[in-house]
Here is the input.
Amino acid sequence: QNKKVKHLIIDEPDRFMRSLKEGIYFSVRFEQLGVRVEYASDESLNGSDALSELQQCVKFFTAEGSNEERMRKAIAGGQKALREGRYPYPAKLGYMRGTTPGVHIINPESGEILKSLLIKIASGLIDVSAAMTEFNNSPYVKSGKHKPYRSDNWKVVVTDPYYAGIVEIKAQINERNENGLHEPLISKQQHEKIVEIVNGRKRKHGGPRKNGNPDFPLNTIAFCEKCYAEEVALGREGI
Here is the structure.
């Protein structure tokens, strides 16, 4: 809306808009601001007569059709890849590109630590928050190869079915294959347990870890047979 700007020069109409309605609408909006949209590729598009406006509309219409065709091909290609067990997008955390397109392989730097943390979460040895802290303090993150995670993003990572060997895309493609060709980090049962923990967890801290904390060996659940026998004798077993 800078009043000094009087011209918006675009190479082709499809670089301006890829929709007939939007092309007409925004051309009018710029005109209302005193800015004329002009195209460098074809001088005949820049006239103020009906023929020039019709040619612009044809260009917008062609661009819209091309856009729809590209979307259809992208969706069809994505569905085909997923049905074959391939993931046609960039490798997720813990993986990297392999020799076969869409079949990613485990990244030795990030994959092993993520695998370890996912198994610990599923086993109840560590909670989701502590796992995030451990990952953020790992050499992989500390070296600057990945940004530290926040709680909301970390939950998305640990509940991703991809790590259980499942490839899926919900938006547009809406396809799921339980038998992805990549090597999973955890089993499907472990994945389901993590999802259950993340979705059903009410407290951040669920109590001491089952197997204790190696950094604090005394911070664990202690059991005294003598005390237990006395409680049983008093009829207070399980209290």
Notes: The CA atoms of residues 17 and 23 lie 5 Å apart. The two ends are 73 Å apart (CA to CA). Residues 50-83 form the longest helix (34 residues). The first strand starts at residue 7 and ends at 10.
